[in-house]
Fold this protein.
Amino acid sequence: MSRLLSQNSTLVYPDYGIFQIVDGKDCDDTAPVPGRNVFSVGERSVYFHSMQNNVLVRLYLESWETEPAWDEDDWEGSRTAVIELATGVVSVDEITAGAQHDLLTLPAPGRYRVRVAHRNRRIVSEAYMALFGRFDDIHGIEFTEAERALEGREQYLAQFWPEP
């Protein structure tokens, strides 16, 4: 049985509908922008694609000793890939919105398997779009409060473990 070594979660701004997990000291230009795909993987990073670009999403980051057990029923979709992390410190690039640094420290630099997953993408996107029909003033307090109530409901997971 695998052991969870460390974990963190954060709210992420999906700028232009995307955000990227990267090594703390490495900007990876090998990963293709995901387009309509939920995820795209480069040699040193993973892009995540949201169906909206205004509501903060929740990202869970986990470091495991070995591959953790997986229950597909908890998530709507997933993918596993291998990436190289030069420092072993995981950050999130929010594109033009900036970055969140040092969110998760892995046991050592090197090659890691990363399982990425998502849930509630469509539900949050549809709920956000429905706000425009419910409120006349999209800059008003009621719209802002309804938008904030959606924050964190769209969720992503990134689980890391050493490449054997």
Observations:
- Residues 4-120+152-162 form a domain with the Substrate Binding Domain Of DNAk; Chain A, domain 1 fold (CATH 2.60.34.30).
- The chain has a mean pLDDT of 95.
- Residues 135 and 143 are 6 Å apart (CA to CA).
